[in-house]
Amino acid sequence: MTKVYVGMSGGVDSSVTAALLKEQGYDVTGVYMKNWTQDLPGMRCPWADDLADAKRVAVQLGIDFKVFDFETEYKHKVVDYMIDEYKHGRTPNPDIMCNQEVKFRLFLDAALADGADMIATGHYAKVQDGSLQMATDTSKDQTYFLYRVTREALEKTLFPLGGFDKSKVREMAEDRGLVTARKKDSQGICFVGQIGIREFLSQYVEQKPGDVIDKTSGKTMGRHDGAIFYTIGQRHGLDIGGGLPYYVVGKDMERNEVFITTDLNDEAFWQPTLDLADVHWIDGQQPTGTLQIRVRHRAPLVDAEIESLESGVRLHIPHPERAVAPGQSVVIYQHGVCLGGGIVTGAPVLSEHA
Amino acid sequence: MLSKAKLRVTTISSVQARAKTVILSKVNTPLFYLDHAAATPVDDRVMAAMQPYFSDAFFNPSAPYAPAIEVRRAYDEAKRTLAHCIGARADELVMTAGATESINLAFAATDGHVVTAAIEHHAVLAATQKRPHTLVQPDERGFISADSIKTAITDTTTLVSIALANNELGTVQPLRAIAEVVKQVRQDRLDRGDHTPIFFHSDASQGVGQLDIMVSRLGVDMLTLNAGKMYGPKQTGLLWANSAVMLSPQIVGGGQERGLRSGTENVPAVIGFAAALSLATKHRKSEVERLTKLRDALQNQLTEAFPKAIISGHPRHRLAGHLHISFSGLDAERVLFALENRHVYVATGSACAANKGTRSHVLEAIGMSPQEADGSLRLTLGHLSNDENIAEAGKMIIEELRREMERTGQS
Question: What is the pTM of this model?
């Protein structure tokens, strides 16, 4: 019997994943990955309920259950990476790093070392012959977060939910009486928790007041408490009252200046080319021909042409998506297959002010 | 979804005779509650006593008009009732928001060295950590000997704090003998002209309604009580201190409770507390008898099914409703979750077996191995327990233990 270790988070998706695999005849072990969280002294640790729910489901299914402790590695590979990227003025995606470094590397290796033949997660994605394909439920498709996973890892991975709609998954959880059937989906970055990214970052980065400048007029419009807290395209958090909504259109990290505009047609929002570094191709080959790209989770797929650069690739985008910030991932598809992608380069500096 | 289900009490019967039938959510599901040491349901008579003081008689007892004065009278009467139940005077009581506050207030009465036990509740241990202290180790039954207290007391010791009964094991401590030790130390100090005070405090949160809590017979100088563990409201407690103790207020303000605990009196809660303690005192003998029978029956049922099971706690000095049972190598938390699905609610020896560092300090202190501690269930009986539901709970516990043992290939 194939021995599968299922990453169980205590949510409905991974609960159904474990249930389905058990029904399909696999020898299933549930594993809760203990990642890094900020433990506030004297407070109940926030992940305790999730761990308990994961274990509850394991007990309901009558499967083995283990806890893998990746706290140190997760802090190093995901949290520190995220903080460091923000410090450099970029907008990283810690979920992508978590999949690359923790779930499909540390967890996979630990599971195999513990006797597993394969791993499984509750991601909405499909694997076929080591290629990563979009989920049937396109609104839930999570391949965007998985583009940096290696082919070797994918070959040892099962995504049993890839063919189901989310509503069907909840229904299957209800049918099986799983205690997580009606649990709310988790939102945002897990380790940041309820406090929000800004408050989280401010514990690690010194607040440094600077000017908020209207890009069009060059006029100083107000003050901010650190350019790193701002991301291109962002609307909220600017302490300026009244009138049309302002959006962050750029920032100068060296001078700690944030540029804003009311003009959504500003060229900085609609980049016809994007340069990517740290490019990862799942099958090791840079694709050719007409491609489609996605600039953030759930963003529509848009057409692009690819050009090789010394340090990565350049994408030419006839109909660009709004506000892609340096540090974000652009994921590349062809015929519903996720081929890989890379990280948007460039310092977030406006040329006319630099 | 169980955790969010509302518990609604529908039928009411006497404390002694039958346990309450409880409706879980909309489904008519019987409740098998074996965690009375964690929380107790408010008795209907207690609820009835409290009810008028939430609405009709809502007045501030410090207000000068007639209806408020009526409330003041009722409040004072409740405190007299509470004092009467422990053989004390009402003006020696300070009402607090629960036992933890009462313990903190007791500790603030002195500074200097503290002697307490390694198996005390976290409220006592945390207050102890702030001071020079000695932790006395219990024996393997969780029993604290008076001799070990005697050895631990130094010339600077100002406080000895030992709970009346341990919340995990149910072991009842020899307070009287410990009080004699403290008294002797006090006398010796006076004889040599040393005026360093020494007081004996006990947290009696567990065991009210099962044990004699007359302060003169316990021999304590301070006593903590907790309404939430005796079928009264939560966040309601008191500290009794004899006249030799100079309490130091921790919460200041309007000067209520003789200036020792400011804040408008929690009138309904204190009235409920008095009703709960009166009932507990009145029915103590018969309830102890009833619970002992039920507990012994459950213990026999389980040990017959599992001869290798380990029963912890003192064989004789143990709370009537307490049963602590361990199965080495078992993951008790899995059994807890399996039982939860069948509406059987129990406690385990660790908050979360997979998580290091949360294993019970009590089980560690009595020398239990991690394998046994992780395989421990604490079953505590009380008003909601009766012959039928305990027998049936026992059956389900045995079934789930078997299932888990078979799954892991031990049995």
Answer: 0.88
